[in-house]
Amino acid sequence: MGIQLGNGGRKHWLLLLLLGLAFFAGLMTSLFLNIQSCKEVFRDRSAEVEDPVLLLKSQAEPDLKSLPSDLFTFHYTCSEAAPLAEVRSMLLNEIFDGVSPFEGFPPPHVAPFLRKQRIKGWGSKDKVFDDLLKEVRPQLIVELGTFLGASAIHMANISQSMKLQTLILCIDDFRGWPGFRHTFKDIHQEHGQAMLYHQFLQNVIATNLTHTILPVPFSTTSAIAKLCDLGIQADMIEVDAAHDFHSAWADINWAWALLRPGVGIMFGHDYYLRADNRGVGRAVHLFARLKGLHVQPHGSHWILRRPSLSAARSSVVSDPNHVRSGKRNRRWQETSFKYP
Ligand SMILES: C[S@@+](CC[C@H](N)C(=O)[O-])C[C@H]1O[C@@H](n2cnc3c(N)ncnc32)[C@H](O)[C@@H]1O
To answer: For residue 24, what are the domain limits?
Structure first.
């Protein structure tokens, strides 16, 4: 005997059918999403475990549009270029009340605590210095991160041997880093202040380089801002201060504004350093990607060349508006980047 459904009964079945379908669709969607997120996790993990280069690339390729624009905004319009011959005296007046920091050094209360020379650096005599000085023949070098002056002194010696009259500005707060005293106990400390700056001055005096090297003893960002305000332009910038991603990112971005248009070269140490999940390498590659530059590895250093003026005009700049205007589709610049 067939079941006779009235109008009300048919509606009831139809409703049940629709509910069933909706439930099934929901189930399938959630299953699909779960599979997708598992894939993501596995993709990330496999990159991390198997290929650090891929990891670095993927980390340097975030969806730029979705990031707060402040992360990419480094507004520096530096003053008009100051004449090179005036840079030294400008800085002496601005920072040292017009008196050279080397004058009358060391004072009697400091002298007993200094060694005639106490120089220690890391990769501070690598071939990259020789190669780049020969390529650029710089008149002005800015160094971010000097410590006891090993790399600055090495560059000054090279420039002398090339008969150049290079001025090297050494930006460093001369505080080292927390814990540096484990290895540098011999550097005297008073009231919690290690005599790093004093020993640096002493090293420069002992190597007869006071006419070539001038300290700018402040934090990197504040010192760069001052140089930019004064219109001081560098032919070469060495980045070797703090080695976490954010510090390197800020240093590279701010300092880029100091490079002399068309000719400048920026380079830095610890390209492969694992600290902060390869923070230095990530910062360099993200910057290169935004600017459309090529990262050239050189030993444990990285090098970025400023494009020529005309190329610079058409290149990508680290400005979110440029990202939005569709100019960011510059391809990842392949390098011979290899991790040891
Ligand atoms: C690795 S050492 C530099 C070594 C030097 N380039 C050499 O090869 O001889 C790093 C230096 O950066 C300085 N430094 C780190 N962060 C800094 C910051 N935010 N501002 C100024 N100096 C900083 C430290 O005081 C330290 O002397």
So the answer is: 7-50
